[in-house]
Specification:
alpha/beta, 5 helices
Length: 188
């Protein structure tokens, strides 16, 4: 069982543009069943967590497309605001420290994994708390120059796997923790 931040990013490290648009992502060709296949990943996911900006984007996207809530797994949304919940969706609004919510995620996931849907700050909070195991990222051949950063923290990662999928370069990293330079040294 692991906690994995599985996402897509631009070559310059942004999840969304400054207006939180993912139009750049939705037009990219992807090979279904290819490297870091999202459908295969989802088969091993027992619980999901996302920040409120990601959640609001998902809701707005569903409103435009007319699609239903796409996740069968229980979903936690980290927020300090009251947000609407789609009818029939197992969405739980949560606030506070990520470690308490992470314990709930693990309990709900059972023997399966926890998926950190987004955003980057939430993934960063989990990493700082030592609760993020992996980062799986699909890098698109697009640059935005500004927007929502992929992972706004100083972390050491270890490359575990790379591949290509459609126009994406995919990579899976193990999270090692804070940058070595930022770790407290004995006696300091």
């Amino acid at each position: 069982m692991s906690t994995t931040y599985h996402t897509a990013t631009t070559l310059d490290g942004f999840l969304a543009d400054p207006e939180d648009s993912l139009d750049w992502l939705l037009r990219q060709p992807l090979e279904e069943g290819g490297a870091q296949d999202h459908a295969r990943f989802m088969q091993g996911v027992g619980a999901i967590v996302m920040g409120s900006t990601t959640y609001e984007w998902v809701l707005a996207h569903l409103e435009v497309t007319g699609e239903a809530w796409p996740y069968a797994q229980p979903a936690w949304v980290m927020t300090t605001r009251e947000l609407t919940v789609p009818v029939g969706a197992d969405v739980r609004l949560a606030a506070g420290a990520v470690d308490a919510v992470h314990a709930q995620l693990l309990a709900a996931a059972g023997d399966l994994d926890v998926w950190v849907v987004g955003g980057g700050d939430l993934a960063g909070q989990l990493a700082e708390a030592g609760l993020l195991d992996e980062v799986v990222v699909s890098i698109a051949p697009v640059t935005l120059g500004a927007g929502r950063p992929l992972l706004p923290r100083r972390l050491d990662l270890r490359l575990e796997e790379t591949a290509a999928n459609g126009v994406f370069v995919t990579a899976r990293y193990a999270v090692l923790g804070p940058l070595l330079e930022d770790r407290a040294q004995p006696g300091s």
